[in-house]
Design a protein that fits this description.
- The structure is a single chain.
- 35% of the residues lie in helices and 13% in strands.
- The chain is α/β, with parallel strands linked by helices.
- It has a 3-stranded parallel beta sheet, with helices on one face.
- Helix 2 links the parallel strand 2 and strand 3.
- Helix 1 packs parallel to helix 2.
- The protein is globular, with a radius of gyration of 17 Å.
- The mean pLDDT is 87.
């Protein structure tokens, strides 16, 4: 599978950038991209427009493979604060990673 790279502009994407990035992402998939990795390393001063850009990109990707990499700590913290840390593809705190099942003992009480 060939992975295509999309780079978020820094230090903070604007609402206008979000529209342009979503159009670029749609064109990449239309041109045959099978998976896209969004590089967020340049986003050093994230704001709500950065969150909007990432959320809109995820929606634009739909069910197609899309991953965000390189998110600096400030962006990770902001995504966690607004409840969208799952955009980074990481399990939330106190939540098991996807595909992991908790074990159940025979003598456990039903909750």
């Amino acid at each position: 599978m060939e992975i295509t790279r999309l780079v978020l502009p820094g230090p903070s994407p604007t609402a206008r950038d979000a529209v342009l990035l979503c159009a670029s992402l749609a064109r990449l998939y239309d041109a045959g991209a099978t998976a896209v990795v969004c590089d967020a390393a340049a986003v050093t001063s994230p704001g709500l427009a950065s969150v909007e850009a990432l959320a809109r990109l995820r929606l634009t990707a739909g069910a197609r493979p899309f991953r965000i990499t390189g998110a600096p700590p400030a962006l990770r913290a902001l995504l966690d604060l607004v409840g969208l840390v799952e955009l980074l593809g990481e399990a939330e705190e106190r939540e098991p990673p996807g595909g992991v099942q908790e074990g159940v003992e025979p003598d456990d009480l039903a909750v």
